[in-house]
Amino acid sequence: MNKLWLVGILEAGLLMSQRPINTVLFPDRDRAQEITYLIKSDSIPARFGFGRVATSTEIARLDIDIRPDGKGLPAGEGKPVAGKVIFAQKCAACHGVGGVGGPNGSLVTTTDPTKKRPEKTIGNYWPYATTIFDYIRRAMPFSEPGSLTDAEVYNLTAYLLNANGIIDDKAVVNAKTLPNVVMPAQQLFVPDDRKGGPEIK
Amino acid sequence: MTKKIIHINKLTGKLSRRAMLGGSATVAMAIAQTAHGKAVQEGLSFTELIPDDPTKQVGTLAGEVGTRSGFEKVIKKPSDISSRSPLQDFYGIITPSDLHFERHHAGIPVIDPNKHELVIHGLVDKPMVFTVADLKRFPSVSRIAFLECSGNFRTGKEAMSPQDICGLTSQSEWTGVKLSTLFREVGVKPNASWFLAEGGDAAIMTRSIPVKKGWDDAIIAYGQNGEALRPEQGYPVRLFLPGWEGNTSIKWLRRLELGDAPWQTREETSKYSEGIKGGKIRQFSFDIDARSIITFPAFPAQVEKGWIEIRGLAWSGRGKVVKVEVSTDAGKSWHIAELQEPVLDKAHVRFRYLWHWNGAETEIMSRVTDETGYIQPTFKQLIEARGADSGYHFNPITAWQLKADGRVLNKPENVR
């Protein structure tokens, strides 16, 4: 890089401009004096050329996220009955037998989800079923993150949805069915619409 | 020896090793003069280094890194998931890097900067991989701004310090490359409206962020207060989103994916969302609401009647602080506090108000107004506006009770 740049004012609008920066942008002397980085330049490059192109293989290795529309869900499927066994072995120590209680919080709702919540659980608070798969695969179990197979994650997802009374015990959870599960709390979620100003909200 | 017991300083281990190697005759003398003899060789306590007259004894020599005075006992208060900045011990507006609050979701990873990469893909013209060295080649930017956890409010006891009440806020000078620079480099497509930021920790922590924030003022930071990021703060690179709730500034950043809808990750649905009126749950509450707190006099300080300089911090995630008012009569009347320059955008600002205390019991408190015209509310106003099923983004006025004997106690709020 043999050019020098006006680093202090890297604004998108300026980048499109081919104007000489020192005459147009700083007509007054005081303003110009404030700039310690004033350097000869007439543009910023569209691209610097640093870094390298990512291959599809290396993206695929990292790209584990699941969206509510199911984008990202892998092949395979899960059932509540299979998930119940895995949960007892790998999850109940932290989240309680049957997903109730436990030192790291309940996952299963034991009260009417339309009434006041004694505790936030998947059944009464989580707005999207796809988040269950994404989060378990991403970070659980806490002591052995990333150790579960996709099949185990599907089974656990099916179990937790069934234990919360959201799907029946014969339901199959896979890339097609999971995005269609409607969570009880989804209708409660609203985006923040505050914009500052005097209102307390 | 009857010297007062003072906490052992990290310095001491280094000193005793040096002394044993015979590297400094002066220090060896100091050791020989102490009463504890052999025990000293196993670890010199700070107390024993205190000379009767510092002008009569050559001090310790230059070291590779500085150390805090052994007389100063400033600590973060760690729990399993976080640690809190000792706001009552700070001067000015910069948080020492080793006292920056921490919040992480699966511990602090050890990441080799020579192996770490940031991948940007999704709705872009050219998916790219950047090494840490690549990121440092781009034009850089530095900015002083606060970082605050959205779950930064505690109450319930009188014996609570500013650190206990809202120690999950800190301020640093952050240095890095503007995300907009990288967005141009990869060619973000016009239909990209959100991006996913993902960390390389054991939680593989993720948040969905509107692309507009990326263009506006997001930084991919590798520097903090003049040095590399601390591991607790995301070494070697983190996202930094000025003014936004702390958890969106993903640490140990390894991946950004551009998309056209939010991913609805666990950290933006089941966590970091708050109940509001009408049984609704508010999410994507990114902005940190304006807040202030008096950090002196505050628990556990003890004061005397007479002149007191009331000092504190004020900040807003929506812009600049324009005014801080202080009340010394439990909120009946308010006085304009002096703001110490620099008053920066989305930054902690130091305020002060000189007051003559007549020794009578009272309550003192502060409230901030930001440039949007938002005035820091009371706890009661927040509960009235949102209902009791809330939690995150609680920024109420904090009152301190001054007792006649000079004790300063938190005034607990009645939560439920």
Automatic annotation (TrEMBL), chain B:
<dbReference type="InterPro" id="IPR008335">
    <property type="entry name" value="Mopterin_OxRdtase_euk"/>
</dbReference>
<dbReference type="GO" id="GO:0008482">
    <property type="term" value="F:sulfite oxidase activity"/>
</dbReference>
<protein>
    <submittedName>
        <fullName>Sulfite dehydrogenase</fullName>
        <ecNumber>1.8.2.1</ecNumber>
    </submittedName>
</protein>
<dbReference type="Pfam" id="PF00174">
    <property type="entry name" value="Oxidored_molyb"/>
</dbReference>
<keyword id="KW-0560">Oxidoreductase</keyword>
<feature type="domain" description="Moybdenum cofactor oxidoreductase dimerisation">
    <location>
        <begin position="285"/>
        <end position="388"/>
    </location>
</feature>
<dbReference type="GO" id="GO:0020037">
    <property type="term" value="F:heme binding"/>
</dbReference>
<dbReference type="InterPro" id="IPR036374">
    <property type="entry name" value="OxRdtase_Mopterin-bd_sf"/>
</dbReference>
<dbReference type="GO" id="GO:0030151">
    <property type="term" value="F:molybdenum ion binding"/>
</dbReference>
<dbReference type="InterPro" id="IPR005066">
    <property type="entry name" value="MoCF_OxRdtse_dimer"/>
</dbReference>
<dbReference type="GO" id="GO:0050310">
    <property type="term" value="F:sulfite dehydrogenase activity"/>
</dbReference>
<dbReference type="Pfam" id="PF03404">
    <property type="entry name" value="Mo-co_dimer"/>
</dbReference>
<dbReference type="InterPro" id="IPR000572">
    <property type="entry name" value="OxRdtase_Mopterin-bd_dom"/>
</dbReference>
<keyword id="KW-0500">Molybdenum</keyword>
<dbReference type="GO" id="GO:0006790">
    <property type="term" value="P:sulfur compound metabolic process"/>
</dbReference>
<feature type="domain" description="Oxidoreductase molybdopterin-binding">
    <location>
        <begin position="105"/>
        <end position="264"/>
    </location>
</feature>
<dbReference type="GO" id="GO:0043546">
    <property type="term" value="F:molybdopterin cofactor binding"/>
</dbReference>
<dbReference type="InterPro" id="IPR030835">
    <property type="entry name" value="Sulfite_DH_SoxC"/>
</dbReference>
<keyword id="KW-0479">Metal-binding</keyword>
<dbReference type="InterPro" id="IPR014756">
    <property type="entry name" value="Ig_E-set"/>
</dbReference>
